[in-house]
Design a protein that fits this description.
A: alpha+beta, Ubiquitin-like (UB roll), Fumarate Reductase Iron-sulfur Protein, Chain B, domain 2, 3 domains, B: about 300 residues, alpha/beta, Glutathione S-transferase Yfyf (Class Pi), Chain A, domain 2, Rossmann fold, four-stranded parallel sheet, 8 strands, globular
Chain lengths: ~350, ~300
């Protein structure tokens, strides 16, 4: 610590640098909408000089403070922990308080498109109605379900190994970035979504919890559960805490088989059925996987496509009779057969 | 330039429903003087579905595939985004987790193999762009694609998760990918700019969540059409299968007539390098490109 007392010097306004050579001119094309008064949303442009240390949240603040006081957005902690300030910039899920603005300029150019996480849920500007997110999150019981002694005499401890099972799932701040980046959430309103699945995983692997099976059964449901995941990895990309929700979705799939929750249906048979072709040919048997997953009666749905594919030569005659023996065999097939025999851990 | 040599992991689709993908890949390699050794020993990658059933088994089988590229001392190239993802995921898991690598190698030892981690894995698209070079491809163009508006469809598993792919795909940013656009440009075609170029085609839930699958494919195709695409091109045969073979069904769900030929990335390159549409199997598509290439009728 310095022992010298520094004398207070009032600002001399003549000395303030007026030109700011370190800044970049950025235009923010910003989504504006007030559900109470507007029939349709519109975009307004705000141009400003942006410095290298400014975050997207700083730019949102500057729109409000320097241009239009009615501009609305959620913000609170401004250091990446409350999860309030999720937005989309040029379609990229962004936590405004964590994202450097000029990084996005480097990626997308000098015009940035500022939008809420989900336009169809917009209430006012960046503020959306997150009800579906919270409802789905609550549905997986995102807490430890256990009969807890209200007057315990010792702590309920977790070992390091038990704690490590959570992976990084405990870091979720419920910002909703992954949920509103997920294309299935947009199409299928029953789908629980990546954040809810991450929470389901978090509490299912918790050794103090007793509702694991219930969560696995819920997430095994067709329509709602993990089997409707399209594997696009948008959630992994969207998470500002680098959680990778789809990794937990794969774990939930695996746990459904491990714990006997998975029941034979089109999706589980589709996953397990890959081994049928692999044992026989080394390759997936494309026709068999459809027949096996759908059941022979369910095949009729695909008949028209099969005929089209056959006409185009996609299901072809040159390597054998279609559907019966048309799949080529890999070399050293016996190795694959042996490895399946000695490494398979799950069954349906 | 010294001759580029790769071990090719074909995947299942190129050996079955998209024979034109394999033939056009080999045609491009021949035209450019790239040496390709097909890994005939390689099995299915599990396509993320086997991973859902039994993750460990999927790692063992993918590690076995990579072993064969390592034996040749070559980079393994893929021609399917999903093969790329699942092979790269196994490589990443084994290279960063010695305990898992040991467990996998214990199994592989039973068939006389050992995973070492010495081969890189990259998609053919990035081998062309980053190793062969766009300028060099440009020099070889015989039939410029200048009359076509081509919509690049990137396919999820080449660009996401970005951390996994970073070293193999030239640091492509999943929110603003450029490789296919640049390739189209090098072939003198006109890349179509549309917002669904980096979105999901829905292939993986075709059976269990058909409606979702059709809507996702439809949204992307309609977006391309509305931005004046004559054809779409993709590096992924699964995206191709979804958008080509199910085009009618997708149109019905979306409520639009969709007629959009969907080319495999190597088919597009081969056409520009002077291959005939027949040579590269354009006739194997359900949605024919007859208005562009009458001879494929």
């Amino acid at each position: 610590m310095s022992t010298q007392t520094e004398e207070f010097e009032p600002f001399n306004t003549d000395e303030i640098e007026v030109t700011r050579p370190d800044t970049v001119t950025v235009t923010l094309k910003t989504f504006r909408f007030n559900a109470e008064t507007d029939y349709l949303p519109y975009y307004k442009q705000y141009t400003m000089e942006v410095g290298k240390d400014e975050l997207m949240l700083d730019l949102l603040n500057r729109i409000k403070w320097e241009h239009d006081g009615s501009f609305s957005y959620r913000r609170s902690c401004r250091h990446g922990i409350c999860g309030a300030c999720g937005i989309k910039v040029n379609g990229k899920a962004t936590l405004a308080c964590k994202q450097n603005a000029l990084e996005l300029v480097a990626l997308f150019g000098n015009e940035l498109l500022i939008e809420p996480q989900s336009k169809k849920r917009a209430v006012k500007d960046m503020i959306i109605d997150k009800k579906d997110f919270w409802d789905k999150h609550a549905e997986v019981k995102p807490y430890v379900v256990a009969d807890i002694d209200p007057h315990p005499e010792h702590e309920t401890k977790q070992t390091i190994e038990e704690f490590n099972k959570f992976l990084d799932s405990d870091l979720c701040i419920q910002c909703g970035n992954c949920h509103y980046a997920c294309p299935v959430v947009e199409v299928n309103e029953d789908y629980l979504g990546p954040a809810a699945f991450n929470a389901a995983y978090r509490f299912t692997v918790d050794t103090r919890d007793e509702a694991g099976k219930e969560r696995l059964e819920l997430t095994a449901q067709m329509g709602q559960g993990v089997w409707d995941c399209v594997k696009c990895y948008e959630c992994a990309e969207a998470c500002p805490k680098d959680i990778n929700p789809i990794e937990k979705i794969t774990k939930l799939h695996n746990m459904q088989f491990e714990q006997g929750v998975a029941k034979p249906n089109v999706a589980t048979k589709h996953a397990e059925g890959f081994l049928r072709g692999m044992k026989k040919y080394g390759y997936l048997d494309e026709a068999d996987i459809v027949a096996y997953s759908e059941g022979y009666l369910g095949m009729y749905k695909h008949l028209k496509t099969a005929i089209k594919m056959m006409k185009a030569g996609k299901i072809h005659w040159h390597s054998g009779i279609p559907f019966i023996d048309s799949v080529p065999k890999i070399k050293n097939l016996d190795e694959v057969q042996k490895l399946i025999e000695i490494s398979q851990t799950n069954t349906l | 330039m010294s001759t580029l040599k790769y071990a090719l992991f074909t995947g299942c689709t190129a050996k079955q429903s998209t024979p034109e993908l394999l033939s056009s890949t080999l045609a491009v390699a021949e035209k450019l003087g790239i040496e390709i050794t097909i890994l005939e020993e390689a099995s299915c990658c599990g396509a993320s579905h086997l991973q859902d059933f039994d993750e460990f088994l999927a790692h063992v089988l993918n590690a076995r595939n990579i072993c064969y590229a390592e034996k040749l001392g070559m980079t393994m190239i893929t021609i399917c985004n999903t093969c790329q993802l699942n092979s790269a995921m196994t490589k990443h898991a084994l290279d960063t987790n010695p305990e898992l690598k040991a467990r996998v190698n214990e199994k592989l030892a039973e068939v006389g193999l050992e995973y070492k981690g010495t081969s890189e894995i990259k998609h053919f698209l990035y081998a062309l762009i980053d190793d062969y070079g766009l300028e060099n491809i440009k020099d070889k163009v015989q039939v410029p694609l200048s009359q076509f508006n081509i919509a690049p469809f990137y396919g999820c598993h080449n660009i996401r998760p970005s951390e996994l792919h970073h070293d193999a795909n030239g640091g492509e940013n999943p929110y603003n990918p450029t490789s296919l656009d640049r390739l189209i440009d090098a072939l003198e075609g006109h890349p179509v700019d549309y917002s669904h170029k980096n979105k999901c085609c829905g292939f993986h839930v075709e059976l269990q969540a058909n409606h979702t699958s059709e809507v996702l494919a439809g949204n992307a195709m309609v977006d391309a059409i509305d931005n004046n695409a004559d054809l779409m091109v993709t590096p992924c045969p699964l995206c191709h299968l979804k958008m080509d073979t199910y085009q009618d069904d997708v149109g019905k769900v979306i409520g639009r007539d969709i007629e959009l030929p969907v080319l495999h990335m190597p088919q597009m390159v081969a056409l520009a390098l002077g291959c005939t549409p027949k040579e590269i199997g354009l006739n194997f598509h359900v949605q024919k490109a007859t208005h562009l290439y009458p001879e494929t009728a």
